[in-house]
Amino acid sequence: MTSPDAAPAFVHVLGAVYGVTPEGVNIDVPSASQRRLLGLLAIHAPRQLRAEWLAEVLGVTAGALRTTVSRLRTTIGPATLRTTSTGYSLEGDVDSSLFCQAVANADKTTDKLGALENALTLWTGPALEEFQSEEWARGESARLTEIHAASVDDYIDQLISVNRATDAIAMAEVQIGEYPYRDRSRGLLIRALSLTGRQADALRAFQTYRTLLVEEFGTEPSPEVVRTERRVATGWDGVDSAPEATAPMEAVHIPLPAHLAHRVAFVGRIGEQEVLRSQLALVGESGLRCVVVGGEAGIGKTTLLAEFAHSVTSSATATVLYGRCDETGVPLEPFRSVLDACVEHAPLDLLTEHVAQFGGELTRLCARLATRVTTTPVPTGSDDATERFLTFDAATHLLRRIASLRPLVLIVDDLQWAEPTALLLLRQLVRTLADAPILVLVSRRDPGEQTSDQLRTALAELEHGETRHLQLTGLNEAELAEMVVAATRAVPDPELRRVTGRLREETAGNPLYASQLVRHWMDLGRAAGAREGQQGRPTMVMPEGVPPSLREVVWSRVRTLGQDVFAVLAAASVLGLEFPEDVLLETLELPDETVSGALDAAVAAGILVDLRFVRRTMRFVHALVANAMYSEIGPSSRARMHERVVRALTQDSEAVHPDVVVQLARHCALAGLPEEALQWSVSAGDHAFEHLAPTEAAHHYRVALDAAEALHRSDAQCADLLVRLGHAQYRMGDPQAQANLGKGAQLARRSGRHQTLIRAALVDDLGVPRVGNFIQESEIVESALEAADPADTATYARLLALRSKSLTFSPDLGGWCLSRGHAPIAP
User: Helix, strand, or coil here: 289?
Assistant: First the structure.
């Protein structure tokens, strides 16, 4: 023992607790209470510790603490253990601190192996070995033990790097003996064994470790250890040598798939294309970016992406990969298509490098890899989670390598159909490749299919990065006109305006629906021209109704929503383009909950729009969809449904609203109810006429007249309807007006309906007689004069004035005046 006045060179806590003099002589501390106090002061040195805290941690009284301090100071010297006004502190070095500093400095030296070797000589045993189970020592002991184990792993790694495989194996086996579940140590042992050419022993070491984990904990080795084992299985020698200098690899040329290679006429979407180009330009600086393209079915999402893909491929701006999610839910579509294209067209050197690092993990998604790289091993057999991780890791690496050669555009189409595992891979790609020059373009129906929780989670994760949204809407009239001209080569302006107006009305600018209608109308026009022997380009024929091709498109879209939705939408189409929910509920023989649920599903799918009036009203987004649904109903079923609508609309005993009158007129006529059709059509016609809508009024009067004739109504009633019809036609400039007025006047005179006859004559009261019709007008007015009561001076005077106008150019004007007792009118 040395003089107690000599301060120790440092305090030893790695293993036993004692002091060491500058001369290297150990200072024995005989009492366990003194060693405990010395160890506690050492692990907190050089901080001052309060006496109260020390007494509490050590579980002694204040007096016992002072006694222990006094005895320890006598042992190690007063220069080492200092007393302050509030507590105690330890002066001098501590071997655990010296060890940690040496390990940290090893990373800063060029001779890391030598630095680690020197640091490890300071470790002479478990930290605070005598007290490591006590509460005050447990945390520090665990910290120092982990630092030591990690530094041993680093030392083994350095031995492998300098080809000292035998030493590495010995160190690794000792390390594993002490820490059997230390994952990195197991991986280093496998590497060291392979470095000595003992591949079989290396693979056996992996299997031993895997069996241990499965039996003890039900888990698998880490992906890093599994990856090491796979590389050994492919003949890896355990050393990552620097690659030889080679010429830079050229960008991978991957042709567009057939789905995109077939180009279609593309119009509009100028702003959307500019967004895609600007986002691609940014990926080189900011890393991965994402654009989500949404819209209803047929709105042109895929067409937009295809046009963009053509532009970047033709200009060699980027490499394009395309995958489409399948309605059938094929596992990991669309990435199977993407990776197949990569493996098919990537250079063999790139694929060989990939296999050397990741083995055959990718063959789970792309069996073609084993064909191109014949040394590809079978993928690792493990549990689902591990296999999925290894496969995703391999897929991510391959895409990163391709993107490193030239910016990559990854298109994932129809994401609404993606199955959960594909969404997991998409999420991992976005996270792992955040720093890669990749533009991810995702399309989805919005509104569209029901959104799963997994899809919502994936879309939410996309929002964490640089993500833009493009919501496609229908083409405007100028863009529709461009589409029509592109399809027909040339269309005269008046017809072009007529066609685009009809397209906008029927399809709301949906490109798929609009293009199908234009094709159908052109086919009808060509057929009509052939029948009539026309030469040159025939005019488009635009009848009512939906072409068969579009009916199938609408049918398939609605059928995917379920039978209840199909039935409800068919019934809704009977009500018209716009309909109130309560009337639909009265019409259908289905529970209210079923109907409401079907309507909500149709709104979510973008087929209906909720107008959100006080009286909940729905509207078909496209008239074409309503017409297609209506065409799916048989004639007899249609009539019955229209009749049910009539009963629903008339069950309220209160006065019927004028808007409902128009609906009743339509439904009664289509239901084959002539009595009701006659009543409501007359009311609808009167309402339209009073509100300056003669065209609509004429339509309703014509329906009423047909119903009256079908019912064999009296000449008086038919005369009244003919005069109403003629009046409306006169206001709208229809040349048939005079013929119907004349026929109505004739029936009125024959049936003695003088007021109806006078009404027919007075239609022309404010107008000028048309050339060629003045004789007929004259006869009507003459008959009205004969039936009129001269005492009704206002009416009689109007009729006389009309008679005078009708005789202005008649040679019999003078005779007529004398016959009436009037003086001839001077010429």
Answer: strand
| H helical segments located in 346-415 | 348-358, 368-372, 384-405
Which residue shows structure tokens 């006169």?
730
Strand partners, 322: 411
Q: Are strands 438-445 and 608-610 parallel, antiparallel or unpaired?
A: unpaired
Q: How far is CA 756 from CA 161, 582, 753, 804, 826, in A?
A: 113, 41, 5, 21, 33
φ/ψ of 649, rounded to 5, equals: -75, -25
**CB neighbours of residue 508 within 10 Å:** 20
pLDDT tens by residue, 766-800: 454 443 444 456 677 777 778 778 887 787 788 77
DSSP string of 22-66, one letter each residue:
TTS-EE----HHHHHHHHHHHHHTTS-EEHHHHHHHHT--HHHHH
Entry pTM: 0.56
Sequence-separated (6 or more) residues with CB below 8 Å from residue 758: 784, 787, 788, 795, 799
Do residues 8 and 80 touch, judged by C-beta distance below 8 A? yes
Quote the tokens at residue 282. 């940014």
Encode pLDDT of 118-175 as tens digits. Answer: 999 989 888 888 898 888 888 889 999 999 999 999 999 999 888 898 999 999 999 9
Contact (Cβ atoms closer than 8 angstroms) between residue 296 and residue 302: no
Q: Give residue-wise pLDDT tens across range 345-399.
A: 999 989 998 998 888 999 999 999 999 998 888 888 877 888 888 899 999 999 9
Angle between helices 384-405 and 348-358 (to 10 degrees): 150
Q: Which DSSP symbol is given to 562?
A: -
Q: How far apart are CA 290 and CA 411, in angstroms?
A: 10
Torsion angle (degrees, nearest 10) of CA 356, 357, 362, 366: -40
Strands 49-50 and 438-445, how do they pair? unpaired
Alpha carbon distance 742, 748 (integer Å): 10
Q: Which residue has the tokens 């005069």?
A: 723
